[in-house]
Specification:
Elements (H helix, E strand, L loop, with lengths): L6 E4 L2 E4 L10 H5 L2 E3 L2 E6 L2 E5 L1 H14 L8 H14 L5 E9 L13 E8 L7 H6 L1 E9 L16 H13 L4 E5 L5 E3 L4 E6 L2 E4 L9 H12 L3 E4 L4 H5 L3 E6 L3 E8 L2 E2 L7 H14 L10 E3 L1
Parallel strand pairs: 8-9, 8-15, 12-13
Antiparallel strand pairs: 1-2, 1-7, 3-6, 4-5, 4-6, 5-17, 6-7, 9-10, 11-12, 11-14, 14-15, 15-16
Helix pairs in contact: 2-3, 6-8
Length: 304
């Protein structure tokens, strides 16, 4: 269950959490066209700060642009509303969910006059794949489902309806005794998790899927930059399922997952079956950055 906070920002104002409701005939509820973001705030040495707020808002507006949804707020207005929401809820650390959706009005696949609504919620939420998983690694399986194809889905946009694919993959993994799924692309190469980007390490070289059919992850970008700063060898290239099996290390990245090691895939141990040294170094650097203990880019932390 969600841990409720006092307020949700909705269409320009803060309202009580329980009053943030929509009509059952809200268009996005029926047809799945909405755009959203996942953002985190962390408590650091100088207080609470939101991690890469500007980049997340830019991606939100970019997603809306791709699907021709006109959000009636500027980037600056949305950033201010997010800070206001975190502050009003006195949230020291937690998760922030902005979502823009097509509201109540006409029905059918095409509507032109329905309002585009914007809501922002923030609540305490720990590590998505669990503290034990972050520390010791998780077990994953290759999903029977394929990830989105670039001519079927607009893969640069973070769209609500796309996550049906993710939900089915996640459910399948859990029902088969794993912690998370990994999806291949439609050509059989490793794509990403249901809500995470994926990295492997073999013989000291970090590999991650290039931006083909995957989401352009902000945590992914953060980790790539941190790896470059540590002079680690990086390749953005496609790799196969058996490349994954043969990896010395592997890990997920994402706003919810943060940096979560993978210790096993399809009941095959990855490396020594525990987080490897490169994974641990990048994980530590990531947490140092988000808590203000290491300054990579001053614009990455927006104080609350």
């Amino acid at each position: 269950m969600l841990k409720e906070t006092p307020f949700i920002w909705m269409d320009g104002k803060l309202i009580p959490w329980k009053d943030a409701s929509v009509h059952v005939l809200t268009h996005t509820l029926h047809y799945g066209l909405g755009v959203f973001e996942g953002i985190r705030c962390y408590k650091g040495q100088s207080g609470t700060a939101i991690f890469r707020l500007k980049d997340h808002v830019e991606r939100l507006l970019g997603s809306a642009h791709v699907v021709k949804m006109k959000i009636g707020y500027s980037a600056k207005e949305i950033e201010t509303a997010i800070v206001e929401t975190v502050r009003a809820n006195q949230l020291e650390e937690g998760y922030i969910r902005p979502i823009a959706f097509i509201g109540y009005g006409g029905m059918g696949l095409y509507v032109s006059d329905n309002p585009i609504q914007l809501a922002i919620a923030a609540w305490p939420w720990g590590t998505y794949l669990g503290d034990e998983g972050v520390q010791n690694g998780i077990r994953v399986c290759i999903s029977s489902l394929a990830r989105h194809h670039v001519n079927v889905s607009m893969t640069r946009a973070k769209i609500t309806g796309y996550y049906v694919n993710s939900q089915i993959a996640k459910r399948e993994a859990l029902e088969n005794g794993f912690d998370e799924a990994v999806l291949l692309d439609t050509e059989g190469f490793v794509a990403e998790g249901p809500g995470e980007n994926l990295f492997i390490v073999r013989k000291g070289i970090i590999k991650t899927t290039p931006l083909t059919s995957i989401l352009d992850g902000i945590t992914r970008d953060t980790v790539l930059r941190l790896a470059q700063k540590q002079n680690l060898k990086i390749k953005e290239e496609r790799f196969t399922r058996d490349d994954f099996y043969l990896a010395d290390e592997a890990f997920f990245t994402g706003t919810a997952a943060e940096v979560t090691p993978i210790r096993e895939v399809d009941r095959r141990t990855i490396g020594a079956g525990k987080p490897g040294p490169i994974t641990q170094a990048l994980q530590q650097a990531f947490f140092n950055v988000v808590r203000g203990q290491q300054i990579e880019d001053p614009s990455w932390l927006t104080p609350v």
